[in-house]
Amino acid sequence: MAIPILQMFPSGIKATKLYSQLPTDGSGDFTVSNPTASGIRSYVDSNGIIKYAEPNVPRIDFTDGGCGVLLNEPQSTNLMTWSEVFNSWTKLFVTVNSDVISSPSGIVNADALMETIDNNVHRVQSVLITPISGQDYTFVIYAKSGLGRDFINIQIDMGGFNSQSFFDISNGVLGVTLGGGGAVSTIELVNGWYKCSVVRATSSATVGFVRLHVANTDGNSVYIGDITKGLYIWGAKLAPDDSSYIPTQGTTVTRLADVVTVAPPVGVTEIIETIDNVDQPPITVIPPTYTAPFGNINKIIMN
Question: What is the sign of the dihedral through the CA atoms of 223, 227, 228 and 229?
């Protein structure tokens, strides 16, 4: 096999720069631009901890373990105005104990959602959300058991639908889904935390809410509560995509798009991108400036 003219496996980085292994003189290094303020552009490091990149610094992400990927994302806005402060959500037959345990960020800033003794639902409710009709939305919450309850129920009531999805956050198993279709998934992180995701499509611009219920069993969120029982939550995000976590503190927050470019070296006739471990169709019309696609990029090869 011929030696590539340019070869980039995501590894060496610094502000504005993503290093290629070939050519060795630096002429094939990528330029990186994303001026989003610090503390917003998140990624999962090699220890499974959610970290934040400084402006214009490439993100090497290890969400799926193994070798890191270049996390290259479009612009996204988190519509959850209080992503970590659940005392600022509307509470119904629950109490919220703030900052009681280490979150997936490795900081003690995750909350405990505790039941009251009432025979009712036990939940927190987000601010009003006005969706775009016909738009898919992905809601994500990071959850952990350890307070006597192993199930969280995510209810999305907006945009012409009302659905509920139950997650077993002790075993990372998907439970009952009520009220319609949509993708649900869990990803295990560190120290018993799970990333729980729900995707729903809207059919109208009807305003609504996201609600997080403590559940005592799979499929059941109405029961006599126990003030000693609940679960841990952190990091709520609602956006038209399932991109990386964006923290908020009272307002929506937008992460700008990543822009990763390079001038292909002389002689390149083919560019092969590998995204999510799948080789994409080769690019044979070589531009004067190549812009990397959005996605989880394993490597870029130019022959």
Answer: positive
Strand partners, 94: 115
Give the C-alpha separation, 204 to 73, whole Å: 27
Would the pTM of this model clear 0.70, i.e. be above it? yes
Q: What is the DSSP letter of 86?
A: G
Yes or no: domain 78-254 corresponds to CATH 3.40.710: no
Distance CA 74, CA 82 (A): 22
Question: Each residue of 89-119: pLDDT tens digit?
Answer: 999 999 999 999 999 999 999 999 999 999 9
Q: pLDDT, tens digit, for every residue of 61-96?
A: 999 888 999 999 999 999 999 999 999 999 999 999
> Is the C-alpha dihedral spanning 110, 116, 119, 120 positive or negative?
negative
CA distance 153 to 164: 6
**What SS3 class is residue 214?**
strand
Q: Which residues contact 46 (CB under 8 A, 6 or more apart)?
A: 62, 68
Q: Where are the domains of the chain?
A: 6-75+256-302, 78-254
Indicate the SS3 state at residue 248: coil
Q: What is the C-alpha radius of gyration for the chain, rounded to an integer number of angstroms?
A: 21
